[in-house]
Amino acid sequence: MEHGSPSARRLNGAEAIVIIVVVVITAALTALTAVPALEVLQLLAGAGLIAGTTIALSTRLSFRSVRTVLKAALTAA
Protein backbone atom coordinates (compact mmCIF):
# COMPACT_ATOMS: atom_id res chain seq x y z
CA MET A 1 0.00 0.00 0.00
CA GLU A 2 1.47 3.37 -1.02
CA HIS A 3 1.03 6.49 1.04
CA GLY A 4 1.21 10.11 -0.02
CA SER A 5 1.41 11.48 -3.49
CA PRO A 6 3.78 10.01 -6.05
CA SER A 7 6.88 12.03 -6.88
CA ALA A 8 6.85 14.19 -9.98
CA ARG A 9 9.86 12.40 -11.44
CA ARG A 10 12.46 9.80 -10.60
CA LEU A 11 16.11 10.55 -10.00
CA ASN A 12 18.40 9.99 -12.93
CA GLY A 13 21.68 8.11 -12.58
CA ALA A 14 23.86 11.17 -11.95
CA GLU A 15 21.59 12.48 -9.20
CA ALA A 16 21.49 9.08 -7.51
CA ILE A 17 25.29 8.79 -7.63
CA VAL A 18 25.70 12.22 -6.02
CA ILE A 19 23.38 11.21 -3.18
CA ILE A 20 25.23 7.92 -2.67
CA VAL A 21 28.61 9.68 -2.60
CA VAL A 22 27.36 12.22 -0.06
CA VAL A 23 26.03 9.47 2.20
CA VAL A 24 29.27 7.45 1.94
CA ILE A 25 31.48 10.48 2.65
CA THR A 26 29.28 11.44 5.60
CA ALA A 27 29.51 7.94 7.03
CA ALA A 28 33.29 7.83 6.51
CA LEU A 29 33.83 11.21 8.18
CA THR A 30 31.71 10.22 11.13
CA ALA A 31 33.03 6.68 11.60
CA LEU A 32 36.67 6.80 10.53
CA THR A 33 37.83 10.26 11.52
CA ALA A 34 35.67 10.71 14.60
CA VAL A 35 34.24 13.99 13.32
CA PRO A 36 31.02 14.74 15.23
CA ALA A 37 27.84 14.31 13.22
CA LEU A 38 26.84 17.95 13.78
CA GLU A 39 30.07 19.17 12.17
CA VAL A 40 29.53 16.84 9.20
CA LEU A 41 26.01 18.20 8.75
CA GLN A 42 27.31 21.77 8.93
CA LEU A 43 29.96 20.93 6.33
CA LEU A 44 27.34 19.45 4.01
CA ALA A 45 25.02 22.43 4.50
CA GLY A 46 27.83 24.83 3.67
CA ALA A 47 28.81 22.84 0.59
CA GLY A 48 25.19 22.78 -0.57
CA LEU A 49 24.86 26.52 -0.04
CA ILE A 50 28.01 27.21 -2.06
CA ALA A 51 26.95 24.80 -4.82
CA GLY A 52 23.44 26.22 -5.07
CA THR A 53 24.65 29.80 -5.17
CA THR A 54 27.34 28.98 -7.75
CA ILE A 55 24.85 27.25 -10.02
CA ALA A 56 22.35 30.07 -9.64
CA LEU A 57 24.95 32.71 -10.50
CA SER A 58 26.58 30.75 -13.32
CA THR A 59 23.27 30.13 -15.07
CA ARG A 60 22.27 33.79 -14.67
CA LEU A 61 19.24 33.03 -12.60
CA SER A 62 17.37 35.94 -11.12
CA PHE A 63 17.96 37.40 -7.69
CA ARG A 64 14.72 35.73 -6.63
CA SER A 65 16.20 32.31 -7.44
CA VAL A 66 19.36 33.05 -5.46
CA ARG A 67 17.22 34.23 -2.55
CA THR A 68 15.19 31.00 -2.74
CA VAL A 69 18.38 28.90 -2.60
CA LEU A 70 19.69 30.86 0.37
CA LYS A 71 16.36 30.65 2.18
CA ALA A 72 16.17 26.88 1.64
CA ALA A 73 19.74 26.37 2.83
CA LEU A 74 19.32 28.51 5.90
CA THR A 75 16.04 26.94 6.98
CA ALA A 76 17.51 23.45 6.59
CA ALA A 77 20.61 24.25 8.63
Number of helices: 3
* Poorly predicted ranges: none
Relative strand content:
under 5%
Our count of domains comes out at 1
Structural class: mainly alpha
Order of helices and strands: HHH
Q: What general outline do the C-alpha atoms trace?
A: globular
Biggest beta sheet attributes: none
The end-to-end span amounts to 33 Å
- Summed over residues and divided by their number, the pLDDT gives a mean of 76
Q: Radius of gyration in whole Å, from Cα?
A: 15 Å
Any overview of this molecule?
The longest helix has 22 residues. The chain is mainly α and 77 residues long. It contains 3 helices and no strands. It has one domain. The chain is globular, with a radius of gyration of 15 Å. α1 runs antiparallel to α2 and α2 packs antiparallel against α3.
Question: Main attributes?
Answer:
77 residues, globular, 3 helices, single chain
Briefly, what is this?
This protein is mostly helical and about 80 residues long.
What's the arrangement of secondary structure elements?
Layout (H helix, E strand, L loop, with lengths): L12 H20 L4 H22 L4 H14 L1
Helix pairs in contact: 1-2, 2-3
